[in-house]
Amino acid sequence: VFEEVLEIVSYMTFYSPTISTDMWTLWPLMMEALADWAIDFFPNILVPLDNYISRGTGHFLTCKEPDYQQSLWNMISSIMADKNLEDGDIEPAPKLIEVVLQNCKGQVDQWVEPYLRITVERLRRTDKSYLKCLLMQVIANALYYNVGLTLSILQKLGIATEIFSLWFQMMQQVKKSGLLANFKREHDKKVCCLGLTSLLALPADQLPEDALGRVFKATLDLLVKYKDQIAEAEKEDEAEDDDEMDGFQTDDEDDEVDAEEMGVDAEDGDEADSIRFQKLAAQAKAFRPHDDDDDDSDDDYSDDEELQSPIDEVDPFIFFVDMVKAMQVSNPMRFQNLMQTLDFHYQALANGVAQHAEQRRAAIEKEKAEKASATPAS
């Protein structure tokens, strides 16, 4: 029953134009349940909590009675610090931190350090690869949120070297198939790319030239893997579409006859409701815990690619190229020194990424223009 209630709350917080005051009264009830007995339902509870924060951001940030930000911190810090909870039990916690950092950019500076502290503490005693990735992505999200603030906190805590060493090590680990052992999903790679790219904006006194070179190369490597993964996914989608079309061509006539015999109304509103519930089911599925057992497949890690996120509108290739161009303008010598440290391989990667970024920029502009022309004038 509790699962069904959460599904209804998820539906209402996702599809309502605004989240009503009455709906917000369910927040403390869910928090109490999580603290008391509902840890097994954490993935289900994550869905409406995400909706509250992403679709009711203003209320989440400004309301003090109750204080939703404090309430969220109390819950997340308690769960992530609980040594009795398995790694799989707490996976929704770093996802929630990501929701906050992405949706409240520039508005939750006071929470960056507490969330980084609890993230690093849990990271140090985490065994499960997938949770390690989620925790590391909290740091990547924090860098994208505010790179200067985040780096200064990591340095103040004396953990900057430890964290970046682990991050680079995780990005270099590959499976027998040649695929990355960590950060398997497109979303994982994108978050890491945005975090790493944000570091390029730092001045030399915060990011020395040797560190700059390492970050630059790591970002290039990851962008290329991200690009390849997207291309592979598009191929698979095209193949599936072709298969579906083949099926439609053979089944269409039978379906039409069946529909007529059954008296089915093609405009039946139930179909629209069904589609909405399917979307919601996909959203709920995205937050389920993952297994690390499958060494050769990334399927387990692709469930939440369909989720909406503030970074959906950010193209990591364009973001990277624009950041490099800004460095070239603001500090030509630093840019020149960086380029001179690149061997032929990385020069080729950089040129390829730059070309792809311009293609992406043109495609995005074209899509915007088409949408604008398709929208009737008011």
Automatic annotation (TrEMBL):
Pfam families assigned to the protein according to its UniProt record, in alphabetical order: TPR_IPO11
Major subcellular location class: cytoplasm
SUPFAM superfamilies: ARM repeat
Subcellular location, record wording: Cytoplasm
Sequence ranges of Basic and acidic residues compositional bias: 359-371
GO terms for cellular component: cytoplasm
Region entry Disordered, spans: 233-309, 359-378
Top-level division of the source organism's lineage: Eukaryota
Keyword Cytoplasm carried by entry: yes
Keywords associated with the record: Cytoplasm, Protein transport, Transport
Biased composition (Acidic residues): 234-272, 292-309
Keyword Transport: yes
InterPro entries: ARM-like, ARM-type_fold, TPR_IPO7/11-like
Gene Ontology biological process terms from the UniProt entry: protein transport
Domain Importin-7/11-like TPR repeats stretches: 11-257
Name this protein carries in UniProt: Importin-7/11-like TPR repeats domain-containing protein
